[in-house]
Amino acid sequence: MISAVASARRDREFDKFLYASVGDDNNGMPLTVLSALARMDVDPWEEASKLMLLPQETAVAQLAVLLGSLGNSPVDRLDSVPSAARLIALLPPPVPLRLSFSRSSPKRLREHIPRPSLPS
Fold it and tell me: Where are the domains positioned within the chain?
């Protein structure tokens, strides 16, 4: 389960991307990335996380396919690749992985390593 703090952070991290306009659907209703993904039964935050980690060209291509597959969409009337490129540019950069190594003494490290038990 995601904590309220983690959930709130997650919500803000992708706001520019998720709340960006895709245009109006055929009924004249405003369509955002969030609403477009939700209409396709795709979790918007999960998809944004996946797209953020992909190389830019791959992310653009994947989003273009998603938006192009949405029925009753303004992207049907437009070239989906430029629209997807504009939207992908709104994603935050991926956070670099930081590895942390402990400077514990070897004796202290040995205390945490389980010792195999010998058969009796």
Answer: 4-112
